[in-house]
Amino acid sequence: MPLIPHAILIDKSLSVPVYLQISNNIINQIRSGTLPPGATLPGSRQLAAALGVHRKTVIAAYDELYAQSWVEVIARKGIFVARQLPELTPQPMMQGGAKQDYPRESYFQLNKNLFPDVMSAVTQAEQHLYFNDGFPDTRLAPIDLLIREYRRFGSYRFTPKYLMYGPVHGSENLRNELAGFLAKTRALNVSAENIIITKGAQMALYLVSQVLFKRNDVIIVADPGYKGANEVFEHAGALVRYVPVDDQGMDLDAVEDICKIESVRAVYVIPHHHMPTTVSLSQDRRIRLLELARIHRFAIFEDDYDFDFQYTGNPILPLASADRHGSVVYIGSFCKTIAPGIRIGFIVAPANLISQTATLRKLIDRQGEQLLEEAIANLLKNGDISRHLKKMNKIYHERRDLLAALLNSHLNGKLRFRLPDGGFAIWAEYLNGVKPARVAEIAFEMGLNIGNVADYFSNNPRPQPFVRLGFASMNESELKDAVSILARAYDKALQEKTSNLTPQLSPAS
Fold this sequence. Notes:
It is a single chain. This protein is of the alpha/beta class and about 500 residues long. It has helices at about 20-30, 45-50, 55-65, 145-155, 170-185, 200-210, 225-235, 250-260, 285-295, 350-365, 370-380, 385-410, 435-445, 475-500; strands spanning about 40, 70-75, 80, 130, 195-200, 220, 240-245, 245, 250, 265-270, 300-305, 330-335, 345-350, 415, 425-430, 450, 465-470. It folds into three domains: about 5-80, Winged helix-like DNA-binding domain superfamily/Winged helix DNA-binding domain (Arc Repressor Mutant, subunit A); about 140-385, Aspartate Aminotransferase, domain 2; about 385-495, Aspartate Aminotransferase, domain 1 (Alpha-Beta Complex). Strands 5-13-12-11-10-6-7 form a seven-stranded mixed β-sheet, with helices on both faces. Strands 1-3-2 form a three-stranded antiparallel β-sheet, covered by helices on one side. A three-stranded antiparallel β-sheet has the order 14-15-17, covered by helices on one side. Helix 1 crosses helix 3 (about 55-65), helix 2 packs across helix 3 and helix 6 (about 200-210) packs parallel to helix 7.
């Protein structure tokens, strides 16, 4: 049965190249039985004329079919559908058995000590609006720049080397460019040997914790704080000690008190725009924390996840920039700079710690995505990242100010907040005894999702009257709609609370 040219539909408006459209159509005719094994295919000139395309396009289509073993070429005879097609039909292990669903649970026992409270994943309903923890607007991510760099690699003769195994530490180009970027923006005098590339800051925290902690080592964290980090520390066997946070950041008097009675292995701190309260650690406390680390010989895990987003004045440099004793492990990420789905994080630390971390990383993840890392290196080298950051700082600054104005306008006397000097969110406190959980429930019904503030308070199980309002991922129109819903949800929750408190009088007899 011959090939049917008129059944091959070509649409030049598609992103799929014409030669692939031709080859894919021929494959479909083979699969459907229209072209049986051994059938003769027309010559390239004949098929090109029938389809109205250049002969080289048909030759490329036939080359693709040959590469996939769909056709065979016999000298001086022509091109034929392969008698042995590349698709194999696996044979069942047991004959006559009914097809069964994959088991929902393992027959063997899991290690319950690893994750004692394993829960099934909970799907979150899609909402048009979302006051999240604080994420960048992925619609503004410079994906076109990344695609540009990937296209460049396609024409480089040395690209194949990036498809083989590379350095466990990450791309050398990226580490060199990153060292220069950190020197310029954060005054970190480091080199490539002080850096390891990770898949985000979370992986960085995990690797460092596994390398440093022995069971029952003590780490001090802030409360409220980042629960994801605390879980990593506990998984590594560490004992987590909590200290409060005020307007100047982590309470260092409480840190010093713990150091006097326990041997502290590390202190975890978010110096800029603390998660979730958005406060920054004051300069005096930074100096004091470095001195405490020197005296008590503990490590400082400095999680500087959004240093690049500052809206007022000159930010205080990271602790790592003033570290003279090798106490600070600096952790950063491009997940906020570009987009959360772009998993590029990094650890900056003394070379001996980086070496041990690389050894561990090799056991669980041989290396990162080399092409992605090379692309990010080029974006840093060309100044694209710096230009993107300047644009985003302007946009997010405007969104922060808009959200603050909307909250003052719609929730005056109902919600209290401190304007953050950077980052992606505003930390606010509900007034008048309104319960955040009830406001969130009502808002959800109206089309607005609000994050659960209880996730931030690890050491205080009592309900807290706070809410974290991420503004960066919503544009002007979305922010206006979100605050309108929030205000209505608050009013309804307050009305319910007032009604419940009103005494019910018995009717007169």
